[in-house]
């Protein structure tokens, strides 16, 4: 997809993430042999897009830790507990951007502060602009997709169990996945 500067300029505005059409997910290695995929079902966020100067754009997302969903109730309860997300003490996971850099025609690096379990680290998430569309309700929608790998231990999420055959039950590296649909505010 080729996007002109004029098309990007038309995107300028403030957008609200549409949770019904957005996925904030993750992938973790399990028992060294497979992957577990999950998502957070409750979150809110905004993006300010400056189409003339992408570096002046910003984003903010707040995720409810209790909304973690791996399609296994027992595992989800364990993830909500003190071994992992400690959601009673840290009910929210947040991301607040600090920089945006255009890296290609439709590619952007979104750098910001990711806070999990009360620990904040800077991450850079490569995003691809997927396009815009007017929906049947007259809203202008914009789409972006991106992912980044983090080490959960960098956020104090250190629980694990050794396996008889060697290795551990839960991998340290977690892939965070973002499929974002946002609606331009009136």
From TrEMBL:
<dbReference type="Pfam" id="PF04264">
    <property type="entry name" value="YceI"/>
</dbReference>
<feature type="domain" description="Lipid/polyisoprenoid-binding YceI-like">
    <location>
        <begin position="14"/>
        <end position="183"/>
    </location>
</feature>
<dbReference type="InterPro" id="IPR007372">
    <property type="entry name" value="Lipid/polyisoprenoid-bd_YceI"/>
</dbReference>
<protein>
    <submittedName>
        <fullName>Polyisoprenoid-binding protein YceI</fullName>
    </submittedName>
</protein>
<comment type="similarity">
    <text>Belongs to the UPF0312 family.</text>
</comment>
<dbReference type="InterPro" id="IPR036761">
    <property type="entry name" value="TTHA0802/YceI-like_sf"/>
</dbReference>
